[in-house]
Amino acid sequence: DTGVSQDPRHKITKRGQNVTFRCDPISEHNRLYWYRQTLGQGPEFLTYFQNEAQLEKSRLLSDRFSAERPKGSFSTLEIQRTEQGDSAMYLCASSLATDRDYGYTFGSGTRLTVV
Amino acid sequence: AQKVTQAQTEISVVEKEDVTLDCVYETRDTTYYLFWYKQPPSGELVFLIRRNSFDEQNEISGRYSWNFQKSTSSFNFTITASQVVDSAVYFCALSAPSGSARQLTFGSGTQLTVLP
Question: Containing H/E element for B9?
Fold first, then answer.
């Protein structure tokens, strides 16, 4: 297993279009996180899954955003009716749900540009 | 609420100089974890270190060292004999396990440029 994979690496879309990103976590990791990073800032938490259950969503996740992890493996993040303010790097991370292993592994991210 | 402050936005040093990146955090939790990540231009966040709140022992790993001081809520990171490959954005992050999400709260990062 080579780590957390995200696809695509870059996405340019017109305002108003829908986009979907995919994240493949490390196979044995049961926790999966989505973060958003805007230019010059640190990543901000969006949402979190434990297996297939979405357990928490940030107030940053407006109703235009939806995330799924249907079989507890890969996850998708969809943004509907994109706005220019959605332009950012979207990062996925995974981890094991044990206290002894509190490490997160991040993917390389999907950079979204809304024009 | 949790907060991480990295007051240094950008630092520039000449190769072989030592450099310290500052991190100050705020949390009401008594049990928490602190992290440092490196983000090179490729974008991936590279894990450097995790420290729990009960372990204030300083740590050294090669040219990297970390100084955790609970009394001042600081977790500073020093690179000794810096190299050009150290150029990146460095993030300090905090996680308190009291919530179910255990998400990371990041600082705004410090852009380190090491000049040859």
Answer: none
Shortest distance between the Cα of B85 and any Cα of chain A, in A, equals: 18
Reading the block at residue A45, the tokens are 């938490």
Please report, for residues A46, A76, B11, B64, the alpha-carbon distance to residue A82 in angstroms, rounded to integers and kept in the order given: 16, 16, 35, 41
Residues of B in contact with A109 (CB under 8 A): 43-44
Nearest CA in chain B to A5: B44
Compare CB distances from B42 to A40, A48, A108 and report the shortest one's residue: A108
Using one digit for the tens of pLDDT, what is the confidence trace for B22-58? 999 999 888 888 999 999 988 889 989 888 888 888 8
For A30-60, the pLDDT digits (tens) are 899 999 999 999 999 999 999 999 988 888 8
Contacts of B43 in chain A (CB under 8 A): 89, 108-109, 111
For residue B31, the chain A residue with the least C-alpha distance is A99
Task: Show Cβ contacts of residue B51 under 8 Å, excluding neighbours closer than 6 positions.
Answer: B33, B34, B35, B59, B66, B68, B75
Three-class HEC string of chain A: CCCCEEECCEEEECCCCCEEEEEECCCCCCEEEEEEECCCCCCEEEEEEECCEEEEECCCCCCCEEEECCCCCCEEEEECCCCHHHCEEEEEEEECCCCCCCCCEECCCEEEEEC
Rounded CA-CA distance B67/B78 in Å is 8
